[in-house]
Design a protein that fits this description.
The chain has 8 helices and 6 strands. It is an alpha/beta fold.
Length: about 260
């Protein structure tokens, strides 16, 4: 490694935060520079091609690699689909990414606790099994992951509460459940805008829609009126915008709300 490159390397490394919590990121950055950035250059371009080794550029590359890894981990598993069928296959996928599911013969949402092994799903194919609900709150479900929900015929309840991964683009994938979906809670999703909410008119069978604390929606009162007009047979709950009480407590730690079968 040349002297010039070493200086660039050390300069960028020193720009990273020095708090104790950032030590892991610092070491990750160092490993990245050693194993990827320098070795990627070919002998012909090693000293002539400009490479951006700024902290922002490296972190952007790391985030992109993390996103690609997430997409790969959520890709459609044909083997699982063929072995367990669409209902049980989708249930296993949701529990795998940290969500919960409601099955018609189960009294509670699975898993009951944060430990997925506390109430395992069936380990063999059950063609009579009906998957009725999905709780995707707290998961990192990406657009490509919705392919795991094809051919679900009994979904009535979906909850995606306080999710940074649900945006207007991902919301359009709920068209997969347009014939059966009755209850939808998308409160607390900051990336949703009025464009995504305008798409909800495709869900004609909705009976209850919860919309609260959507920071990305401008003019919430007007948008709420439009949603109510689009879905005349649906009970729309919430005000879309942030209430004064929520503004005071939005940064305070709180225990995540859980769904029970009696609530739905």
């Amino acid at each position: 490694m040349s002297t010039t490159f070493k200086k660039m390397y050390q300069s960028t490394l020193q720009q990273l935060p020095g708090t104790e919590e950032e030590v892991v990121k610092k070491k990750r950055f160092q490993r990245f520079m050693d194993s990827w950035a320098f070795n990627r250059l070919t002998p012909e371009t090693k000293w002539t091609t400009y490479q951006d080794f700024s902290t922002e550029a490296v972190m952007e590359i790391l985030e992109d690699r993390k996103r690609q890894k997430r997409i790969k981990s959520q890709s459609f598993d044909m083997k699982r689909y063929n072995n367990f069928g669409p209902e049980l296959s989708a249930a296993q996928f949701v529990v795998k990414i940290g969500g919960k599911v409601k099955i018609d013969d189960y009294p509670e949402w699975v898993p009951i606790t944060d430990d997925p092994s506390s109430m395992p799903l069936p380990e063999q194919r059950l063609d009579k099994l009906k998957l009725e609900g999905l709780d995707l709150s707290g998961t990192n479900l990406v657009f490509e992951g919705y392919r795991n929900f094809v051919n679900l015929q009994h979904i009535k309840y979906i909850r995606v509460h306080d999710s940074d991964f649900l945006d207007d683009f991902n919301l359009t994938q709920f068209v997969l459940f347009r014939d059966t979906l009755e209850f939808l809670d998308i409160s607390g999703c900051p990336k949703l805008t009025w464009r995504g909410l305008a798409w909800l008119h495709h869900l004609e069978n909705l009976k209850c829609l919860k919309l609260d604390n959507l920071k990305g929606v401008d003019d919430p009162e007007i948008v709420l009126d439009l949603v109510c007009d689009m879905l005349p047979n649906c009970q729309v709950q919430g005000t879309i915008g942030i209430s004064p009480a929520q503004e005071e407590t939005e940064h305070a730690p709180s225990k995540p709300e859980s769904i029970s079968s009696t609530e739905l």
